[in-house]
Amino acid sequence: FLPPPRSFCWEHCPEQAVEAAPEASTSCLICLEPLGDKKPYAPLVCPACKHAWFHRGCIQEQALRDGITCFRCPLCRDRGAFPFAMLTMGIQVPLRVPSRDRQADEELSARHSRCDASGCLCPGGREQAEEAGPWELLLCSSCAAEGTHRQCSSVSSSVADWECNGC
């Protein structure tokens, strides 16, 4: 179920419930410009990875280009919580196929879903992942191109972020 499209002026737009504000040096993941206070609307963050920050206008352009079938977080590629949160925040996502051919690179853009630790310890194998616990799959907080089970890289349950060796 998709919420109906909403539009807001700068005084009445909803605010995202986020655990932390972006650091002063944080840039928009799409245009790479500093988030700053240049625009009247607060920047938006992906509710799934909590590391991807965007200008409202930048993520709106992506939504218009992608359409509902391909709209996802550019960093973690989440297609669950991300589109719903952006719709709730007033981002319009057209109910159509993308305006460019995304089917050709769909396999390349799929969310990473396996443990890349040199010695995966999971009894279910590299492809198994749980929501929490020792077999929770953590994606690299910088590139999201590699993953590890908490147990395989000795990441405690109190740690929310993990970075691969390449980053």
TrEMBL record:
Domain RING-type: 28-77
Pfam families: PHD_G2E3, zf-RING_2
Keywords from the named record: Ligase, Metal-binding, Zinc, Zinc-finger
GO molecular function: ligase activity; zinc ion binding
Source organism superkingdom: Eukaryota
Signal sequence residues: none
GO CC terms, sorted: nucleus
Name the UniProt record assigns to this protein: G2E3 ligase
Organism lineage: Eukaryota, Metazoa, Chordata, Craniata, Vertebrata
